[in-house]
Design a protein that fits this description.
Layout: E1 4-16, E2 26-42, E3 48-55, E4 62-65, E5 72-75, E6 80-87, H1 91-96, E7 107-109, H2 117-121, H3 129-144, H4 151-162, H5 169-176, H6 180-190, H7 195-213, H8 219-226, H9 231-242, H10 246-256, E8 257-259
Antiparallel strand pairs: 1-2, 1-8, 2-5, 2-6, 3-4, 3-6, 4-7
Length: 266
């Protein structure tokens, strides 16, 4: 499943593929060049992100953005350049050792975290997107070379994505051969959400894809096909995760979102 996650207004966003060895763990590297007054809006997709930003004469620092449970909006008071990469679910925990549920909806500066010392201490000169991507990619290759997700977490993620989020937690736990309680603890630690929370995010993402691929469908039909109880349930999720109504998204919003996995590149 592709990730539809970022709405950009007043800015340009471009993508660069990661090294092949990283593609099971990350999306594309991205570079956002923002004008004054630009807006960057990110909706929940299950991912986290590492990024660095350059704006005016402010000191640049690497940061880790945790999983989202509601839209995150950033407005720029002046021209800026942001460089970063999306980490697929579970990868932030592999890199940091920080339980993902403790950074949900938060942005953490990496300067004080020992796990990111090699990244933070690397010299970035000149301050160009290409140099930032080079430094970040080298760090990720070194840290993720022999790393892997917990096998139960990997299985749960696969099942939830395969079912487009429409799966009951007891059934999911049975497929993973663990108790629902144990699965909940593992998912919160590795991904930031329990299995039901992650399934809701994936169902929301699947709904955005349906809206993008088949325009003109009624909200009631979309709700039924996406696994919602009814149209009101669909509207509630879209308001919570995208901050918009089904009509607004169907008419303009979805087509404006950037798809930020490399399989969406031409």
């Amino acid at each position: 499943m592709s990730i539809i996650s970022t709405l950009v207004q007043g800015a340009e966003i471009r993508f660069q593929e990661a090294a092949e060895a990283l593609r099971t763990a990350v999306g594309c590297f991205w570079v956002v060049t923002a004008e004054r007054g630009a807006v960057l809006r990110v909706v929940p997709d299950g991912s986290t992100a590492i990024s660095i930003g350059f704006q005016n004469d402010q000191p640049a620092e690497w940061s880790l953005r945790g999983p989202l449970i509601r839209p995150e909006e950033r407005r720029f008071s002046g021209p800026a350049v942001l460089i970063g990469i999306r980490l697929l679910p579970g990868v932030a925990f592999l890199l940091s050792g920080i339980s993902a549920h403790t950074i949900v909806g938060r942005r953490v500066a990496l300067g004080g975290l020992a796990a990111f010392h090699d990244l933070v201490s690397a010299e970035i000169h000149p301050h160009t997107p290409g140099r930032c991507i080079e430094v970040l990619q080298r760090f990720l290759l070194q840290r993720l070379e022999h790393a892997s997700l917990h096998h139960t977490v990997a299985a749960a993620l696969h099942e939830i994505e395969r079912e487009h989020g429409c799966v009951r937690v007891p059934d999911l736990a049975a497929r993973c051969r663990v108790s629902s309680r144990h699965l909940h603890r593992l998912m919160r630690t590795w991904v930031g959400y329990g299995p039901k929370g992650y399934a809701n995010v994936i169902r929301f993402q699947a709904t955005l894809h349906e809206m993008d691929d088949t325009r003109g469908r009624t909200a009631a039909d979309l709700a039924s096909e996406a696994g919602y109880y009814d149209q009101a349930h669909l509207a509630l999720d879209l308001a919570r995760f995208a901050g918009a109504t089904p009509r607004r998204l169907a008419s303009t919003g979805v087509a404006d979102f950037s798809k930020t996995r490399c399989d969406d590149l031409p």
